[in-house]
Design goal:
The protein has 467 residues and is α/β, with parallel strands linked by helices. The chain is 35% helix and 22% strand. Helix 4 runs parallel beside helix 6 and helix 5 runs antiparallel to helix 6.
Length: 467
């Protein structure tokens, strides 16, 4: 039988594995140009850059562009073998969009720290890097949002920009162990599967020579243990086990705690990151609402927008949501709400050839009684929301139901109970099903995964758990 001390060893080794993920390969010398404007890549390339040694930078509400190079030479090629990958690891202290050789390749924010390199980015020679970073601003405490409050602005602090290689053996072993461990923690104490998982994990922990100078030998050990864990990961659930379908999502508040120019950049950063993950994870699909966000990207990041069009055609990216923005439905008039659908649907149809069938309002508080009639009249079949669960007294009694409007029109509604910024760890999967009320109606539910409000979306770590 395992003890708390045994389980603590598993926790310790998981934390230890995380420290082995990335190994520095090549630091980058950077130059900086600060600006208060929202510049295109072409305009940023014309700025006057000065050498940058790191540390604090920027002014409140302002931005900076960082410029540098990395070189793929024979030494790099010898360092990185077929079982390891190269990444660009960046921490400027602010949310950032990264360009390599003129192409937006992904974002850096609080949840996304590395960008996988691929294709031409790995060709021998020198590659140009440009990074646009936002310096941030204070958030007025009148919002009463203590988790977001930043009563006084502090300059962001640059930490590093470097090429790193990922230790794939450590990376894979970590997610094999973490997935099994997290799943076992959700099972009852008398579960045979829980016992088998704990037993195998503990045997793996005790069989490893963790502190050794033989790096190659340690990596072989990591691969050996992953092979040993594979049968546990391959085990199937019973036929009566429910199914939770995950889809990537990045909720973006068009107007909240930042100016519109920053919303535009959040859209560009979020979309570039999610597009990159399509090449990394063949099973991954992403959904995004709000025609306004797409128009921002179409105007300010046309090359990102072109890649979204291709991803929609490949059925990797789902355009949906119905409305121009995720609108309030209590204050606007009926005419205003109809025009939200009219203009939103017209945009989706003209740009993507898509007529959306879902009203996607995860972050809107309250819905008027004639909304089902409006949705039906605008060709909407389904409604997805979350905020009807934000009550301090009574619990909303349904999560999958038909909503009948004032005139008798009905619409099928999914109430995402936990959060529209969900996760792929087994504990969240377990919690999602536990709290689902309509178990008698269906064993199939939907959950949206990814960091949101300020965008960002799914992370590589979340996709590894899903895999």
């Amino acid at each position: 039988m395992w003890t708390k001390r045994d389980l603590a060893k598993i926790d310790q080794r998981l934390e230890w594995l995380k420290r082995l993920f990335y190994v520095p390969v090549q630091p980058m010398e950077l130059y900086i140009a600060e600006t208060s404007e929202n510049l295109s890549l072409e305009a940023a390339e014309q700025l006057s850059y000065t050498p940058f040694a790191g540390g604090p930078w920027g002014e409140e509400w302002g931005s900076a562009w960082f410029k540098g190079q990395y070189t793929i030479d024979s030494g790099i090629s010898q360092t990185v073998n077929s079982e390891e990958r190269l990444f660009l690891q960046v921490d400027t202290g602010g949310e950032s969009l990264v360009y390599i050789d003129g192409e937006a390749v992904g974002a850096i924010d609080r949840q996304h720290h590395e960008i996988p390199l691929r294709g031409l980015e790995l060709d021998p020679g020198t590659h140009e890097v440009l990074i646009e970073s936002y310096a941030g601003h204070h958030i007025d405490n009148r919002t009463k949002l203590t988790e977001h409050a930043q009563h006084s602005w502090e300059a962001p602090v640059f930490k590093h920009c470097q090429l790193v290689r990922r230790n794939e053996a450590a990376w894979n072993l970590y997610f094999d162990m973490a997935t099994l461990y997290n799943a076992a923690n959700q099972l009852p104490e008398d579960s045979l599967r829980k016992t088998r998982i704990y037993q195998t994990l503990l045997e793996a922990v005790h069989s490893m020579a963790w502190d050794t100078a033989d790096i190659e030998g340690r990596s072989r050990d990591f691969r050996r243990i992953s092979e040993r864990l594979a049968p546990l990961l391959e085990k199937k659930n019973s036929p009566t086990t429910p199914i939770v379908n995950w889809i990537g999502h990045a909720h973006i508040d068009v107007a909240w705690l930042w100016p519109i120019k920053e919303t535009i950049r959040k859209c560009g950063r979020t979309f570039a990151t999610q597009l990159r993950y399509f090449d990394e994870y063949s099973f991954y699909q992403f959904i995004q609402s709000q025609a306004q966000c797409y128009e921002f990207v179409e105007k300010h990041y046309p090359r990102i927008f072109s890649r979204i069009v291709d991803a929609v055609q490949d059925r990797r990216w789902e355009v949906n949501g119905g409305m121009w923005v995720e609108a309030d439905t209590n204050l606007p008039s009926t005419e205003s709400l109809i025009r939200q659908f009219l203009i939103g649907q017209s945009y989706f149809q003209s740009k993507f050839g898509v007529k959306t069938d879902v009203l996607w309002l995860p972050d809107v508080f309250g819905y008027n009684g004639n909304l089902p009639q409006i949705m039906r009249g605008c060709g909407i079949k389904y409604f997805v929301t979350s905020k009807i669960g934000w009550n301090d007294t009574n619990q909303f009694p349904y999560d999958l139901f038909r909503w009948y409007g004032i005139d008798g029109s009905d619409i099928l509604v999914l109430f995402i109970k936990n959060t529209y910024n969900s996760d792929t760890k087994p504990e969240m999967l377990h919690k999602t099903w536990q709290e689902f009320i309509s178990k008698q109606e269906t064993d199939l539910i939907l959950d949206t995964v990814g960091y949101g409000d300020g965008g960002g979306g799914v992370t590589m770590e979340q996709l590894e758990y899903a895999k």
